[in-house]
Amino acid sequence: KLVLPTNTEYTLALLKPDLCADPHAVQQVISDIQKLSSTQNNIYLRKELVWNIEQAQQFYYQHKDRFFYTRLTTYMTSGSFEALILTGENIISQWRGLIGTTQPVRAKVSVQDSLRAKYGITDTRNSFHGSDSKESALKEISFVFGNL
Ligand code: RTP
Ligand code: MG
């Protein structure tokens, strides 16, 4: 059973399959994450994942009626990828700030040095996920790491 720290915020970060196809890029990103926190280690847990189509559909159920749902779930089943539980003060907005806006092309305009601008390939294959609230973080972490 997974026990989350109670004294700090946490979030679920996904390094999606396109990024994980490039181990050098993964190493760079891990080092960028570690720079978010100057004091303690902010990577609480790290896990390699492979999703079948049912798992991808369930994780992204809220998008089931969107035009990009099929290509999103296909993308997320295209290879192994990594899930990380990140912890720290304001880590939800810190991580979303680092990855940048959803669509890499827009991210290139708005935040030049965002991770999606740097690594993202298309609007869907944007290399990263970050929980958007404490509620989503809790739900997503228990989906990926088992019941809390
Ligand atoms: P995420 O949940 O992955 O952190 O991304 P987000 O909040 O920035 O974006 P969201 O709207 O929740 O979309 C979830 C994922 O669906 C793919 N997507 N493709 N126009 C498109 O083709 C499109 N829009 C979204 C992306 O992979 C996005 O991260
Ligand atoms: Mg989202």
From TrEMBL:
What EC designation does it have? 2.7.4.6
Lineage per the UniProt record: Eukaryota, Fungi, Fungi incertae sedis, Zoopagomycota, Kickxellomycotina
Q: Where is the Nucleoside diphosphate kinase-like domain?
A: 8-148
Q: Which domain of life is it from?
A: Eukaryota
In the record, the note on similarity to other proteins reads:
Belongs to the NDK family.
| SUPFAM superfamilies recorded | Nucleoside diphosphate kinase, NDK
Designated name of the protein: Nucleoside diphosphate kinase
Pfam family, any one: NDK
